[in-house]
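User: For my dataset I need records formatted as: sequence, then structure tokens, nothing else. Please produce one.
Assistant:
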Amino acid sequence: MAFRAVHAEWGTVFAHLLDLGCGRSWEAVWKTRPPAPLTCDECRHPMYAKTSRSGLRFFVHAPGAPTCALGLESVAHHLLKLELAGAARDAGAHAELEVPGPDGAWRADVLATDPAGNWKTALEAQLAPITGADITARTDKMHADGVTSIWFSDRPRPPWLGTVPSVRLERPEAAEHLVIAEGLMKFESRSWKAVPASLTQFLTWAFAHRIVTHSPQTPMRYPQRSLATVWTAPQYITAEDTHFVEEERRQREYETRTAALRAAQEKKRDEIRAKNAISRAKALAEATEAEQAARTAQTGRLREVAIRFRPGIDLALAKLAEEHGVTATVGFSTGDPRYAGGVPLVDENGVPAAVFDPDPGRARGHAFRLLAGLLLVFPSQTSRRRFEKATKRTKHKPIDGYQTDFVDAPPSGPARSRPRISSSAPTCTCATPQLVARIQNAEYPAEPSDQMGPAAALFRPQCRACGGKYEKPWRRTGSTPIIRTSRPER
């Protein structure tokens, strides 16, 4: 089905025009004897005029015709071209259908021209699928010959929309003419929004250069899609530029205010840190004096209870030795309220280095000032999280937060049966010792070392091969306890 043909005498004739575009009637080519001399301007094969039952007039190829693109044109495509041509004429332009380019490199569906001859615009009806690269290439070919182009589709979501100068059309219910559904925008209230307009009005603005193509830099209002290129009036481009300048000014002012606020806050925090450093140093000095007094008085009952019944203390001491380089022991001042129910871990000079498992509900007053400046070690990750969660709800908290850590202590309860290293155990003399270090009812892998590590000052390893104690330098090789599996009975 085609809607144009070439008459041997009259030139190109169009089925949709009452005078065929040459001052002749439809009867001059339809059912004439002999048949009218019509051929296809694409494949040059003979054609003849035909009318459908509904009265639609068109041309068809005579039998034996080759495959021809013109014969494959759909009714929808042709009708859209007719609407484009009619709207172009209503907008004051001269419009012709199926106008080829100078070298036949392209063919415009509708070529709209200025009656004064100042401009030419191809109006392209694109209903078939096409890639963005192909539609851009076709646009560039026309532009190289001095012809601008506008692409139209009445499909719901053409994927190429906005890749080239284009709009999407739709026909509202009971409406006579097509309207612009997407692609015509205006900048208002700090964003882009659609402008309602008829196809004729759109072409009137485009031909008069009252609207131009533009690449938006700000979002479009829902439900409009964000398109790479839209049609808009120059004043709206200026409005967007003004908006950006104003936004940049506001952003600079905001950043200036924010920087000044941050500087003031940081200055205040530095002042608080300086005051905290003094109060924490005082609290640490008082705790050190309390530890020295406790050592002199030899009040070690609570200390022994803590060592025996607080799982994880030995692991905490090992962590201090290996990760912080501090050789510590359980303080004699255990039970002092300044540790908030925790156990003080003091260095060789009796200075508190850490507190093991403090109670968040008791971290206040003197205890708060001391704990805020010390490392807090907890017997598990769960207990550490419990402490941090509880202290977040308190009125007073360190400005930089508590310094916390944890160990994986075995669950509390009766100690499992493990072989102990007695003082009378023989010394290991194995050529390749198989060492294991026992820390708080758990065993960890170890190996001989060239130097004595911090943990070696607190614990003694045992050789699995001979059962003897190992007196030479060693180091722990893993932080995961060794799990022994019982052998099945024979």
